[in-house]
Amino acid sequence: MAVDTGGIAGQIARIREKANALIEEELKARGVKGILPAHGPVLAFLLRQKDPVPIKAVVESVGRVKSTVTVTIATLQKHGYLRKFPSDEDARVTYVELTAKGRRLQKDFEEISQTLRSRLYGDMGERDRERLVRQLDKIEENLSE
Amino acid sequence: MAVDTGGIAGQIARIREKANALIEEELKARGVKGILPAHGPVLAFLLRQKDPVPIKAVVESVGRVKSTVTVTIATLQKHGYLRKFPSDEDARVTYVELTAKGRRLQKDFEEISQTLRSRLYGDMGERDRERLVRQLDKIEENLSE
DNA sequence: CCAATTTAGTTCGTGGGCGAACCGATGTCA
DNA sequence: TGACATCGGTTCGCCCACGAACTAAATTGG
Fold first, then answer.
1. Nucleic strand C within 7 A of Cβ B84
2. Which fold, A8-120?
3. Percent helix, strand, coil in chain B (nearest 5)?
4. Contacts of A41 in chain B (CB under 8 A)
5. Residue A50 contacts strand C, CB under 7 A
6. Domain B34-144, CATH class in plain words
7. What is the tens place of the pLDDT at every residue in A33-63?
8. Burial level of A67, CB count in 10 A (0-12/13-18/19+)?
9. Hey, where are the domains in chain A?
10. Which residue, A65, B12, B51, B99, is the most exposed by fewest CB within 10 angstroms?
11. How many beta-carbon contacts under 8 Å exist across A and B?
């Protein structure tokens, strides 16, 4: 967050923090060990894959720098959620894939996403939700130029 | 950010990151040294004060844990933006206040806030902005319960 | 009045995130 | 083919943030 403590930027920063806190609580409540909100995007990406993918593909998908992804993947591996292995064709490349234990996170993952969304929106109507998301899209675009 | 990579939570996380990036760029462009987005809330609070305040007051205002604030204040002090001094009445208490150099940040601070807001909102109309802020208020509240 | 508790602040260890430097391996191209 | 650039990935140093443990100084209450 930052300069704009009172304004919309501060609001957005606080919402993000609370959303993360909620995710952490949910993970804890479900007894999921070693997973933190930061692992979400990597997990989400890998859950969508049927086959092993190069780490590079993860980097491009998650919007984190490669040094960050290296560490995230190491952590997930340490906890047994994924495994790494070198490519035969290109010795620079390392593939990753979820283990069975990693795959099993899918259910929690989806349920937590659902819980988060409904807590976040509360009783907001469908039309308001759509308008809100569209406005946020616009804002994201405004900040990307 | 988290589980909900595709959904609204991911959107919000990305907006926050982009807002922070914009602030960093602005600070750099203005040649402000040693200040980062994380210092914003502390600075904002201190700029509002006429007299020295106990660190405790800073902690309560910025929504960060006291160990975090200790470090932030140390950094701002190291760069000469504020000074610390012990209380006479209560030896446990340390006061902080901005130095002249710190006070001089006010202008940049306000201008960057303004720049951020207009970049963020873009050409969104006043009524939409208000509705958006109200919805975000609602969301923040939903997540706080 | 003094022991127990609370309070303000710091320190330490852990983890996310970044950029820069680095390492091998592969590509390029003269 | 051999020097150079590029590429995938890791390591390192730094900053933010947290909680737990710690210190010194009040405050409380028996």
1. yes
2. Arc Repressor Mutant, subunit A (1.10.10)
3. 65, 10, 25
4. 1-2, 5, 10
5. no
6. mainly alpha
7. 999 999 999 999 999 999 999 999 999 999 9
8. exposed
9. 8-120
10. B51
11. 170
